[in-house]
């Protein structure tokens, strides 16, 4: 009876914490008169946007206009607000000051579900589920046919390793894709984004955790993925974003430079210093690999 009572008390304490979490109301929610955002063109505008984490300023008076179909790369030292700037688009946060618009509509007036149907994301830390390869690619596109899943996998370069698996697209990949390498996870995430086919795409360090050979394969898949979409890319390896339509350089939460790779190199400013450091790091890695 004592053991039973002890187990009961532990269960009651655990259930209190469990329901406490379930009862938490999200900070970001739909306004009472939220409108539906149909198929977006992908015109993104930041107007005087500032953002703080608690009392720490992260973004300061950001003004940025991204045209439909344009590829924008965000670069800068660690902790300058690149990911935060991107996370304002699917409304993971709301700005403290200013506003973010898509196709001229303030995101705070749009329903969250309809907004996020227009945004695809490929992140550094890919989340995969303990299901089959096909189920993971089709996550977010539950009505997709097997043919569409395979087409997305072929376009992402994932089909080449999927077909070598024991059961192909019916192979179970384990919790968080434990049976896959980092590069394979990334290509599945790209296949998922291709199948989702959103007009706005966010790529956050999508090639940072893979080797040079795998990076080249992922880069080729990303090139197919970004075609015709408004794309925001965050990357520390500057070699992956040199072909961007525009590179936006952030420092201490502010935009300090904008332009193409060649234009920014000519300015001999922060981007030029980052490019030199990136080149030196790549040379060192190549030398170590050869040894």
Q: Main traits of this protein?
A:
291 residues, six-stranded mixed β-sheet, 10 helices
Short description:
The chain is built from 10 helices and 10 strands.
C-alpha end-to-end distance = 67 Å
Report helical residue fraction. Answer: 25-40%
Number of helices: 10
- The structural class is alpha/beta
Radius of gyration computed on alpha carbons: 22 Å
Question: What do these coordinates show?
Answer:
- Helix 5 packs across helix 7 (about 180-195) and helix 7 (about 180-195) runs parallel beside helix 8 (about 210-225).
- The strands form 2 sheets. Strands 6-7-8-3-9-10 form a 6-stranded mixed sheet. Strands 2-1-4-5 form a 4-stranded antiparallel sheet, with no helix packed on it.
- It is about 40% helix and about 20% strand.
- The longest helix is centred in the first third of the chain and has 21 residues, at about 1-20.
- The protein contains 10 helices and 10 strands.
- A hairpin with a 2-residue loop joins strand 1 and strand 2 (about 55-65).
- The chain is α/β, with parallel strands linked by helices.
- The model has no long low-confidence stretch (mean pLDDT about 85).
Set down the secondary structure blueprint.
Elements: H1 2-22, E1 44-53, E2 56-66, E3 71-75, H2 82-87, E4 97-102, E5 105-106, H3 112-116, E6 119-123, H4 133-137, H5 146-156, H6 159-162, H7 182-196, E7 200-204, H8 212-226, E8 230-234, E9 246-251, E10 254-259, H9 261-267, H10 270-290
Parallel strand pairs: 3-8, 3-9, 6-7, 7-8
Antiparallel strand pairs: 1-2, 1-4, 4-5, 9-10
Helix pairs in contact: 5-7, 7-8
């Amino acid at each position: 009876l004592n053991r039973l009572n002890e187990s009961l008390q532990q269960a009651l304490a655990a259930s209190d914490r469990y329901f406490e979490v379930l009862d938490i109301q999200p900070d970001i929610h739909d306004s009472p008169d939220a409108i539906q955002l149909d198929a977006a063109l992908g015109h993104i505008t930041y107007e005087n946007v500032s953002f703080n984490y608690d009392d720490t300023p992260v973004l300061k008076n950001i003004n940025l206009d991204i045209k439909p179909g344009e590829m924008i790369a965000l670069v800068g030292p660690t902790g300058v607000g690149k990911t935060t700037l991107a996370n304002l688009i699917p409304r993971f946060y709301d700005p403290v000051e200013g506003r973010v618009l898509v196709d001229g509509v303030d995101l705070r007036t749009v329903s969250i579900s309809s907004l996020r149907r227009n945004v695809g994301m490929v992140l550094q830390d890919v989340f995969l589920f303990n299901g089959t390869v096909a189920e993971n690619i089709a996550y977010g596109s539950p009505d997709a046919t097997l043919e569409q899943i395979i087409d997305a996998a072929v376009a992402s370069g994932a089909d080449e390793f999927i077909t070598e698996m024991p059961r192909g697209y019916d192979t179970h990949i384990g919790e968080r894709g434990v049976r896959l390498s980092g590069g394979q996870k990334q290509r599945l995430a790209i296949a998922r984004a291709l199948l989702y086919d959103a007009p706005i795409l966010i790529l956050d360090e999508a090639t940072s955790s893979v080797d040079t050979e795998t990076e080249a394969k992922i880069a080729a898949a990303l090139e197919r993925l970004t075609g015709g979409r408004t794309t925001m890319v965050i990357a520390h390896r500057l070699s992956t974003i040199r072909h961007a339509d525009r590179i936006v350089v952030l420092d201490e939460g502010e935009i300090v430079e904008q332009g193409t790779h060649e234009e920014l190199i000519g300015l001999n400013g922060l981007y030029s210093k980052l490019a030199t450091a990136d080149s030196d790091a790549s040379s060192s890695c190549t030398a170590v690999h050869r040894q």
